[in-house]
What we know:
The structure is a single chain. By secondary structure, the protein is α/β, with parallel strands linked by helices. The chain folds into 2 domains: 4-53, Arc Repressor Mutant, subunit A; 66-317, 3-Layer(aba) Sandwich (Rossmann fold). The chain has helices at residues 4-25, 30-37, 41-53, 66-79, 97-112, 126-133, 164-171, 187-193, 197-206, 224-227, 233-241, 291-299, 310-317; strands spanning 83-87, 119-122, 144-147, 174-176, 211-215, 217-218, 246-248, 251-253, 281-284, 305-309. The strands form 2 sheets. Strands 1-10-9-5-2-3-4 form a 7-stranded parallel beta sheet, with helices on both faces.
Amino acid sequence: MKEPFLEKRDRKLDLAAHAAWLYYIAGNTQEEIAIKLNVSRQAAQRLVALAVSEKLIKFRLDYPLSDCIALAEALRDRFDLSLCAVVPSDAGSGETFNGIGVCAASHLETYLAAKTPTVLAFSSGRTLRTMVEQIPSMDQPQHKIVSIIGNMSHYGRAGRHEVVMHLSDRVGSQAYPVPTPVVATSVEERRLLQTQRSFLAVQTLTEQAKATFVGISQIAWNAPLHQDGFINDEEVTELIALGAVGEIAGWAYDQHGVLLENGTNSRVASVPLEQPAQRLIIGVAGSEKKADAILAAMRGQLITGLITDKAAAQAILS
């Protein structure tokens, strides 16, 4: 039997879904919804807003954008990608996390909706968190949601954009986080952490993943890996001097997409990346400032799929 507060929440969501259907599908005004549901106009407005925030309704653009399709096809052909999608850039703010997140969520939702038990793997980051926030509530306990990266610095500070636990909470799937920091304090500590049974179990699952969604970031002062405290000032300076242009799950690589042998890579405690990737690894990242990092990841075959924005796509192809 459900708890009273859960029953009350379900009733409210039912009402919100009804209000949203009347507004978006039947074309009713808020005044008409208020009358039909026997609530105030303000309550009708709040119910419609609740339906949107709880992802009870989905917005899809049915008309394809020909320039984005052309860019996606050009990227797919040039880099032999299994999957490529390009979304419009937000000319107003230059931030396209929401658009890329919506697009990535539509691909992720296809896997999550399957009845067959599926393993899905993820790194972390702001864009991937945006993707997760676009996924509606589900009850899919048969799936396994696996991380390929830890979520803390070597001194215990937690990352702000963890993905696996949040997605698991939303869809009810089994969660398998990586029980390590992103970068260990020493090579010896990294080796010890990666011999733990819990780490090896997660690594085995990632090798079974049907798809892996990864964020891609540039290596620069105040880039995410640095800003979130996973590497310090001295370490980011060293990576730049070594020629690093990008990173995936903490692993830094150069302009050719080759993983660095030195620097923090010797202490990264994330699940190792395949090079070249033998599975579907989908890079989810955009903006012109990340174009070099995305380009290098494709050159080095660290990713086999890409969801990006128009600004990044144009910069890469030019």
